[in-house]
Design brief:
Length: about 170
Amino acid sequence: MRHVRLIAFAVVLAMALLSPQTAAAAGKPLRFPAQPPIGTFDAGLLCPFPVYTEPFGPIQTVTLFFDASGNVTKITFTGAGFELFRNADTGKTVVLNVSGEGTLIPQADGSTLGFGAGPGLFGLFPGDSRGPALLQVFGRDKFTITAPDTHGVTHITNLVLIGKVIDVCALLAA
């Protein structure tokens, strides 16, 4: 999964909802390049300092799967992906492999179940399980994205990380 899956989820979901109905009607999966975030996250959103991010090299592919009615039933992230992260205060920079695969399964209640494996990345905001944090995961993960509240805000809950977890904020602070 382009493991900044939590950061980019809203973009993917919006694209899923606006995807061409011809692909959905034909029952064919729809593939497109992931849209990694580019820009600076303010201090406190992920790390105690502002964090700049941009893709670095190849980006992952998003695939949407549809049911017979054209509803998105599954979203997958596959392929190589690398992200650059920079402490905007100090200039300390790291490039991370985020090439792990991931899957999102929309639920009838508006929430989304997610799971993935491999080297991945979680951007966790205040209000998310374990957030705020920026975590690189070498292993497996499982989580739920809540249905949007009345303000359109979602949260990561029930986050389970199995394997080696690296605190990217600590890397960037050193």
